[in-house]
Design a protein that fits this description.
By secondary structure, this protein is an alpha+beta fold. The chain has 15 helices and 47 strands. Bound molecules: 2-acetamido-2-deoxy-beta-D-glucopyranose (6 copies). The site of one 2-acetamido-2-deoxy-beta-D-glucopyranose has 3 residues, from loops.
């Protein structure tokens, strides 16, 4: 009390004393003892990035004032508030520094907020740093460990780069985000977003006290089940868990970019970036992707997939089949066989999962999988375990007690979970496995005979293919140690096998009327499974000796991939002479039908842009984000399929290549690909890299904008191909003339021009001049991204795009020129 009186006294004294001297609006970035910041004045950080001052959320009124930190040079965007629950009615607010603390006064007599040091300070200052942190410290101690107080510890609804979401364990400080109540009311709203609990940290969004979304625990690379927060060239997420603190934070490489996470008033977690061109915040990522992210949609032991559908995990059945049939999944699933503790229970492994809620860390740290298993086995209420790397020490044994809640299928990047099962279930699995073993021996022999001509590894994969089974199929870990490790190594390639009869019946014996296309290596049929599911069957021509390699390649590549912009492989059929791939059926067929067909349907600009973004995301996944790194090598309009919502899906991995993490370029003697889409270095010398895919993407992008094919492009005024034509228009300053006349009015000129510019950058002659797919995505999606000026593209005439003299191909009607998939044997 005495202190605040003293402060008030100081304040009165100061405000009368300094009335004349502090008339300027900007004080500096520092407030010293006995200085006062009044409404109308600002502290500005040294790099002019942030400012601290009084504001009203509703700019039309000057009542309800708050002291907050906002960006300096853009329209009011508040990132932190001192008095969010406690507004100041008029312009009388002030922040005043005392000798041992500081206080926010609503008016000369009422302090509504104050911070004091416990120890006596020599020369304290309050400073606004250029990362938006307001710190109270000793002037001669700039070390962040020595801050007496910092605003970063008291997050409002915004997480800035360097801010930590999490816990300081020593003093129990919990730093988490809370939404505003409404657009004009920053007081604490309904939603909170936090990292908890500290031992097995998860990201949790709550409405009040109820969980709405949950991702976690941290598995060494990400929060289990979350995809969006991964590292990329501009954005670096960080997670740290030690005895001192547990936190999530992120850094931005390009310091000129403004970006932040925010929890909105409706409970969405968004990552935003400031767009200089359109002068607004662009939403880059929303953490909630689909309804499988909603907390516990499928009930206990339910597994959510394809947002939202629910299935019971293997070994479980719906608790209430009636409700389940009515798609009321909330009751979840129960065991087929009850557990009988200590009496033959064992564990079954489920791969590709988002881990369940309510995990616990085993008492002893750093256990192996085997040790963790016996800890879990030893406690009857332990229902599941896994080993993940929460603390960066190689492995933490994580246990689950009671029902397993809030799981989802996450085949692309999920974790392994070992679930306790009753003896009967394990026996059923062991029986099924014995049957499979017999088949394996038989098929291995066949494999080694037919595999003689094949590269060893492919043969090996094929043999494994034959042992294929539905992914997530249960594996018993109960038997012996040897069995245990064997099974852990074999998780990779698991794909359903269809039998020939099923596929034949589905396609009406491969009848002509069901044929929907002809791929490079054989016909494609539409079919309907007994379940009603529509499928596309790609059948290898039996006489195509070459196709078998490509077939195997495709199986190996795509079986490991899962992404919404890649076509989904449902299974394969290898029986007698038949080799078939079974895909999901996409009703809208391929993109070329929409782009180049005479009778094409109209694609609006928005649809085209969404298609471009989808392809770019799919390609980025192949190049960088998937478990494998893959070069597609045959990206073209006819290999982009469209689902009924016109989402693009990349297909045809017949000649794709897997490349190692350290490997950036490969060479081939057999150049395969499609005229018009091949990059110069690939067509001419067989060198390919992710940048050759970028070239093809650039061609595709320009085709999507122009509605014209690159290969077979015809213009009465010159003999350039589409790339040359686009470059010519770009140089002449009329890029918009490239646009397809069928594009409706509702396009943004800036966006189209940016797309053309990015397209031209992708088709640059020199590999080094082409951007990577991650920068392509960034450039396409952010208006303010710096996009370089393109130079002349590679292959500006059709003849040059074959890497050879092609006088013979001229004179054809350009719009009916067939697309040719070629194989050029290198002459060397
Ligand atoms: C600051 O110190 C004064 C007097 O010592 C006390 O009344 C006030 O409650 C303190 N404020 C905080 C936030 O600790
Ligand atoms: C604001 O009020 C909420 C509850 O109404 C409380 O939980 C929170 O701590 C308060 N925040 C501040 C910064 O005073
Ligand atoms: C000072 O502010 C408080 C709360 O904001 C208000 O209740 C009080 O009437 C004000 N006093 C003066 C003298 O303005
Ligand atoms: C994590 O935090 C500890 C202590 O706070 C620190 O020593 C360590 O360097 C941090 N690790 C990373 C990866 O930032
Ligand atoms: C099993 O684990 C639970 C949760 O940690 C604990 O409460 C219980 O005492 C344990 N039971 C035995 C028999 O160790
Ligand atoms: C954990 O165990 C592994 C091998 O079992 C060992 O290499 C590693 O150093 C251990 N880590 C810690 C922190 O004890």
């Amino acid at each position: 009390m005495g202190f605040s009186l003293f402060l008030s006294f100081c304040y009165i004294w100061l405000s009368s004393a300094s009335q004349t001297s502090t008339a300027a609006t900007v004080v500096s970035d520092i407030l010293r003892p006995n200085q006062v910041l009044k409404d109308g004045q600002n502290l500005v950080s040294s790099g002019q990035r942030f400012e601290l001052g009084f504001f009203s959320p509703d700019s039309s009124s000057s009542s309800n004032r708050y002291l907050g930190i906002s960006y300096k040079n853009i329209p009011l965007t508040v990132v932190w508030i001192a008095n969010r629950n406690n507004s100041i009615p008029g312009l009388s607010g002030s922040l005043s520094m005392g000798s041992n603390g500081f206080s926010l006064f609503a008016n000369s007599s009422v302090a509504i907020w104050s911070v004091n040091a416990t120890a006596v300070l020599k020369s304290p200052i309050l400073q606004l740093l250029d990362n938006g942190n307001l710190v109270f410290r000793e002037e001669n101690n700039g070390d962040s460990e020595g801050y007496i107080w910092q605003s970063f510890d008291y997050i409002t609804d915004t997480l800035l780069p360097d801010m930590k979401l999490g816990w300081k364990l020593r003093n129990g400080l919990h730093m988490y985000m809370r939404s505003w109540s409404s657009a004009n009311d920053p007081s604490v709203g309904e939603f909170s977003f936090s990292l908890d609990p500290p031992e097995t940290p998860q990201l949790v969004l709550r409405k009040g006290t109820q969980k709405r979304n949950r991702w976690g625990p941290w598995d060494g690379a990400r929060f289990s089940g979350s995809a969006a927060l991964r590292s990329n060239p501009v954005f670096i997420p960080m997670f740290n868990s030690s005895i001192e603190e547990v936190y999530y934070t992120f850094k931005i490489v390009d310091q000129s970019l403004l970006s932040r996470f925010v929890v909105t008033q409706d409970g969405l977690i968004q990552y935003l970036q400031w767009s200089k061109n359109s002068n607004e915040w662009a939403i880059m990522v929303t953490l909630q992707r689909d309804s499988c992210d909603s907390y516990m949609v499928c009930g206990p032991y339910g597994n959510c997939y394809d947002g939202p559908k629910c299935e019971c995990l293997n070994g479980f059945r719906p608790k209430s089949p009636v409700d389940w049939a009515r798609v009321d999944w909330s009751g979840g699933c129960v065991r087929k066989w009850e557990l009988d503790c200590g009496n033959g229970d064992g564990f079954v492994k489920y791969g590709g999962m988002k881990l369940p809620d309510n995990s616990h860390l085993a008492a002893s740290r750093n256990l192996s999988l085997e040790e963790c298993r016996s800890v879990c086995l030893g406690n009857c209420s332990c229902m599941a375990f896994t080993v993940i790397d929460i603390h960066g020490n190689g492995g933490d044994c994580v246990l689950w007690f009671d029902d397993l809640l809030d799981m989802r299928d996450f085949s692309g990047g999920g974790d392994d979970l070992y679930i306790r099962m009753a003896k009967e279930e394990l026996e059923a699995i062991a029986d099924a496995k014995r049957d499979r073993r017999v088949k394996v021996i038989v098929t291995s022999i066949i494999c080694s005979v037919t595999g003689m001509l094949l590269v060893g590894i492919i043969g090996w994969y094929t043999c494994r293919m034959r042992r294929a089974r539905r992914w997530r199929t249960a594996e018993s870990l109960n038997s012996s140690h040897r069995d245990f490790t064997e099974e852990t190594q074999e998780e990779d390639l698991e794909l359903p096998l269809f039998d020939l009869e099923t596929v034949s019946a589905a396609t009406d014996k491969f009848s002509f009327k069901n044929k929907i296309g002809q791929g490079g290596f054989g016909p494609v049929y539409k079919g309907v499974l007994p379940t009603g599911q529509e499928i596309a069957v790609k059948r290898l021509s039996q006489n195509s000796g070459q196709g078998i390699n490509e077939f195997k390649n495709e199986v190996i590549v795509i079986a490991k991939l899962q992404h919404r912009n890649l076509v989904k492989l449902l299974g394969c059929c290898i029986q007698r002479e038949e080799r078939m791939l079974i895909y999901e059926y996409l009703p809208n067929k391929s993109l070329d039908n929409f782009l180049f067909d005479e009778t094409r349907k109209k694609l609006t600009w928005k649809m085209r842009f969404d298609i471009v973004m989808g392809i770019a995301r799919g390609l980025l996944y192949l190049h960088q984000d998937s478990r494998l790194r893959i070069i597609h090598r045959d990206l073209k309009a006819s290999n982009i399929l469209l689902d009924n919502e016109m989402n693009p899906k990349i297909s045809d991995f017949g000649i794709a290549r897997i490349f190692g993490a350290e490997q950036t370029e490969q060479m081939t003697k057999r150049v395969m690909g499609t005229y018009g889409y091949m990059s110069p270095e690939y067509a001419m010398s067989g060198h390919f890299s992710v940048k050759s895919d970028v070239f093809s993407f650039g061609v595709l992008l320009l085709e999507i904008i122009s509605g014209k094919k690159n290969w077979g492009f015809y213009h009465p005024g010159h003999d350039l191909n589409l790339l040359g034509h686009a470059w010519k228009l770009w140089n002449e300053g009329k890029p918009l003339e490239l646009m397809d006349a069928l594009i409706d009015e509702s396009y943004s000129e800036n966006e189209v021009i940016r797309c053309i510019q990015v397209g031209l950058l992708c088709v640059q002659q020199r590999v080094e001049d082409r951007p990577t797919m991650s920068s392509v995505l960034l450039m396409l999606s952010t208006e303010n991204a710096m996009v370089r000026q393109p130079k002349e593209p590679g292959f500006v005439t059709e003849a040059s795009s074959m890497g050879m003299d092609t006088s013979s191909s001229s004179g054809k009607n350009p719009y009916t020129a067939n697309e040719v998939t070629v194989t050029i044997l290198d002459a060397r």
